[in-house]
Amino acid sequence: MFFTSREIRFGDVDVAGIIFYPRYFAMLNDVVDDWLESLGFGFRRLMQDFGCSTPVVHIETSFRVPLRFGDSVKFEVTAKEIGSRSATLDIITFKEDKKVILTALTIVCVQNGAITSLAWPASVKSALKSFAEATEH
After folding, report:
1. C-alpha distances in Å from residue 85, one per residue of 107, 111, 131
2. What's the angle, vertex CA 35, arms to CA 17 and CA 82, rounded to 5?
3. Gap between the Cα atoms of 82 and 86, Å rounded
4. CB-based contacts of 13-22 (< 8 A; 24+ apart in sequence)
5. Which of 16, 18, 65, 105 is 20 to 30 Å from 49 at the Cα level?
6. Other CB atoms within 10 A of residue 132 CB
7. What HEC string does the chain produce?
8. Rg, Å, the chain Cα set
């Protein structure tokens, strides 16, 4: 598993004072970048060294408890499936020890400047598979 934390900031909430869902999805993008970086292949390296990027092609999110300005949250990332061109992740957002948001998302490896999927570079796929095997439940 991979963990990262952050605080909900003023710009993350709507006029009701709860997390604004587009800002939450932007946070998830940062979480995925942090996760890939922990494997040695953050967005910058993928783009510069391998000529690829990893857009989200599918996402499902369940907002179980509202998050508010000032809340501290922790994200837990596990790999549900690593394919030849994609990765499906489960991301659980915790407030204290309570699961407050559940997300399943799929990223796909694509060639920079094109909407053409590519096979994961061998070293990236190896790191993804190692992570998935280490986090199987």
Report:
1. 9, 11, 16
2. 115
3. 6
4. 13/67, 13/68, 13/69, 17/68, 17/69, 18/66, 18/67, 18/68, 19/63, 19/66, 19/67, 19/68, 21/61, 21/63
5. 105
6. 17
7. CEEEEEECCHHHECCCCEECHHHHHHHHHHHHHHHHHHCCCCHHHHHHHHCEECCEEEEEEEECCCCECCCEEEEEEEEEEECCCEEEEEEEEEECCEEEEEEEEEEECEECCCCCECCCCHHHHHHHHHHHHHHCC
8. 15
- Residue 18: phi and psi, rounded to 5, are -115, 165
> pTM for the complete prediction?
0.92
